[in-house]
Specification:
Two copies of one chain form a homodimer.
Chain A lengths: L2 H18 L8 H12 L16 H12 L11 H4 L46 H8 L11 H9 L4 H8 L9 H12 L7 H6 L8 H13 L15 E3 L6 H5 L9 H4 L7 E3 L21 H13 L5 H11 L8 H4 L14
Antiparallel strand pairs in A: 1-2
Helix pairs in contact in A: 3-7, 3-8, 5-8, 10-14, 13-14
Chain lengths: 352, 352
């Protein structure tokens, strides 16, 4: 029996210990915390390639170029990287993003890091996956702003170099430069944008990977009830939930506009003020917070969540403790995100 | 006498040879070309730190962060990197750049790579250096769009982390977060954004560093007369010259707006249609061309320049030959430009 299996065995016994009065060496508090954390969370996989979404290196390379290229947008100013900037951990630091022609998005741009982990995309959960999000962004009035896919693809095709990149990424397609392949390539790239953090090392068994203060914060995060929604591999991102379970969210966030959430998609009363629960990986690096970026400070955001979701008023110390844990969710930027690709030079000149 | 000195001696003698009838081994055509090129051009220095503009690593690190940070702009959307994107070789690929609030710049954004080499900045030459350019961009209506420096600096100061970075970059300053230090830091960073190319290796004596076609193009570049303005370390960038010496530029470029050039700065008739001669380093990677980005193809741009500056009509083959040479001016992206810095997370939330 190796050490890990033995530890797990001991931990399992320890959990049973109190009721069964089995006489075993007690697990250390760290081991107990680890064991509990492992029931709530999962460490990051290497990437999110799957049978359904196979990721080939050529697709990833194409998707990476497309991600950084503003030329397929209406006026040549908007790339995915405009709202998802590497230097800002895949965000734009704005409350609500601004797309072509100074058009304001209704909601905040979440980080693209680990976004592919989520069960759905967008705050209203109305994009099925990263591919769907990428495709629809082309036509978003406050995103790429294109009137149709044809114009967007024509702008791409006018750039020498892309034709061959699409052909290599999608061999056998008679017309590879098309919006579905655009979406697949960007999705393939985003499925590689995962960044493990010290908390992943903890979850894998290294109980010294995070500080005692962070471990206390993790304990509090679990005990306070945050983990009910913010669990799994994404530390959230898998559920849609009403924002403001115990009181109206806007009274605490100070939101100027009352966003009805998923109700605006389904027109179902049950979806009133329902939003996607965001994943918390890298949360310390991605202010401002909430669907409308109405709160600048992570401490404030934690306090508001406890209040409006759980009906609990946390002290400054309790909030700071949870934030100590949240800081362990920050990983290094993936190299293929931090470093810009060199785009094929343009034969095309956007009109302006 | 070592080999290099011997070669130089031979080359010098070869130049004198015809008139003096000195009997020496003739220089090879490559050696003659190299020798001639060395009279017109200079290889890149490592960086542009100088007594007047000392570059410290802390200033460069601060300047690099500031370069990528959109938060000091009016609406939080414009950083230096918006118009000078790494993926587009320090340009935005637009004919004319777009700043805050969808405001159109009057002219094309040149690459920031090797920009510090130039004798002045901006197409009208009305920015003395990269520091001056960076500072004035804060107030440019179609750049950062700030009404004054105070607001811009207040937005910077609201970001935890910058105070310490400014203090370390400018020790002893009682109020280090100020527009002059903003400019100095970004200038310090830009003075490191030099990228040597295969042509630099050639200039340093490696005659095999560029292809025979490129060498033929270099010969043609010199003999056609391009080198009269596009010489020195920047392959241009040191002079102000009238665009359209032998005929009006707009008849060839198809420019929709007739830009009067430096005349708009000095109101001196002699400055009518006078623009800064751009440096040609990385020119193949930085379309579209000219002050208004009116021409998308480098081949077209070369043909137009020969026509309107030198009164020469080049054949397609002659143009292609010169472009073969121009392609040797492309260097790799500097690492500290290709890779985004991680910016201090915001406590500040831009209003939008």
């Amino acid at each position: 029996m190796n050490k890990t299996i033995f530890r797990k065995y001991i931990q399992a016994l320890a959990v049973l210990g109190a009721s069964l009065s089995v006489s075993v060496a007690a697990a250390t508090p760290d081991e107990t915390l680890l064991s509990e954390a492992q029931r709530h969370f999962k460490p990051l996989p290497k990437d999110l390639s799957s049978m359904e979404f196979p990721v080939t290196p050529k697709q990833v390379a194409l998707g990476r170029a497309l991600f950084f290229d503003p030329r397929p947008s209406l006026d040549g100013t908007v790339s995915c990287a405009k709202c998802h900037q590497p230097a800002l951990y895949g965000t734009d630091s704005l409350s609500r993003s601004i797309g072509v022609k100074d058009k304001l998005n209704p909601r905040n741009a979440p980080t693209v890091l680990n976004a592919a982990l989520q069960a759905s995309q967008h705050w209203h959960g109305d994009r099925t996956d990263v591919e769907d999000q990428a495709k629809k962004a082309l036509l978003g009035a406050a995103s790429f702003g294109q009137p149709d896919f044809i114009k967007s693809m024509a702008q791409l095709e006018a750039i020498p170099g892309y034709q061959a990149m699409f052909e290599q990424a999608f061999p056998g397609d008679s017309q590879p430069v098309n919006p579905d392949n655009w979406a697949k390539a960007i999705g393939a790239y985003e499925r590689t944008l995962l960044n493990a953090s010290p908390f992943d090392d903890f979850l894998k068994g290294d109980t010294e990977a995070i500080s005692p203060a962070a471990k206390a914060g993790l304990r509090r995060f679990i005990d306070t009830g945050c983990v009910a929604c913010h669990g799994g591999v994404g530390i959230g991102g898998s559920l849609l939930k009403k924002f403001g379970l115990t009181e109206d969210y806007w009274k605490s966030t100070g939101s100027q506009i009352i966003d009805k959430g998923r109700f605006d998609v389904t027109h179902n009363e049950a979806d009133l003020y329902v939003f996607k629960v965001p994943g918390l990986r890298n949360v310390a690096m991605t202010p401002p917070y909430f669907h409308d970026g109405s709160v600048a400070s992570l401490n404030d955001a934690v306090g508001i969540m406890a209040k409006v979701q759980l009906g609990k008023t946390l002290s400054h110390e309790e909030i700071a403790s949870i934030v100590s844990f949240l800081n362990t969710l920050t990983g290094a930027l993936p190299d293929n995100f931090a470093t810009a690709p060199v785009l094929p030079a343009s034969g095309f000149r956007p009109t302006n």
